[in-house]
TrEMBL record:
<dbReference type="InterPro" id="IPR042426">
    <property type="entry name" value="CDPF1"/>
</dbReference>
<dbReference type="Pfam" id="PF10170">
    <property type="entry name" value="C6_DPF"/>
</dbReference>
<feature type="compositionally biased region" description="Basic and acidic residues">
    <location>
        <begin position="21"/>
        <end position="30"/>
    </location>
</feature>
<dbReference type="InterPro" id="IPR018785">
    <property type="entry name" value="CDPF1_dom"/>
</dbReference>
<protein>
    <recommendedName>
        <fullName>Cysteine-rich DPF motif domain-containing protein 1</fullName>
    </recommendedName>
</protein>
<feature type="domain" description="Cysteine-rich DPF motif">
    <location>
        <begin position="43"/>
        <end position="142"/>
    </location>
</feature>
<comment type="similarity">
    <text>Belongs to the CDPF1 family.</text>
</comment>
<feature type="region of interest" description="Disordered">
    <location>
        <begin position="1"/>
        <end position="35"/>
    </location>
</feature>
<feature type="compositionally biased region" description="Acidic residues">
    <location>
        <begin position="1"/>
        <end position="13"/>
    </location>
</feature>
Amino acid sequence: MEADEDFVLDNEAAEIQRLGLPEEEKKPTDPEEEDERIARIEFLCSGCEMQEMVHYFGRKPPFSLGIKYPEDNYVMRDPFQPPPPRWQTKAEYYISLGANCSICSKTVCKDPGCSFYYTATFCLPCGQDELKNWPVEAQARIRKQLSASQGNKK
Ligand SMILES: [Zn+2]
Ligand SMILES: [Zn+2]
């Protein structure tokens, strides 16, 4: 019955609202809020020299709603997505471009030709130096990655 369905839907909406995150204080769109959407942090991969401006560097992007990275990441809001409406409690789309090598601190992107992740991010040269200390499985993975990236060298 239509009437019943409506009733259920209404209830659900109420329920979701009740369980939802505490609503953020309503504030009029102020200039600062607009600024937040401008990428101001420079990301430059030491491997492939990809350069991008990103919105956030750290572990817990304010726009990711609850996501916490195990290490500092360069995070960019998805430029192809419109900002979510104010009331939306879903995270907007975002991309982590890369992180810093846990040994030499060089910035590397997520490309397999630039970085390797094993418990932390390593640039490939550091990964190559470190791999002897890693379990065989991780060694096999990075060796594969290293040979693939060398094969790809232009
Ligand atoms: Zn790169
Ligand atoms: Zn390194």
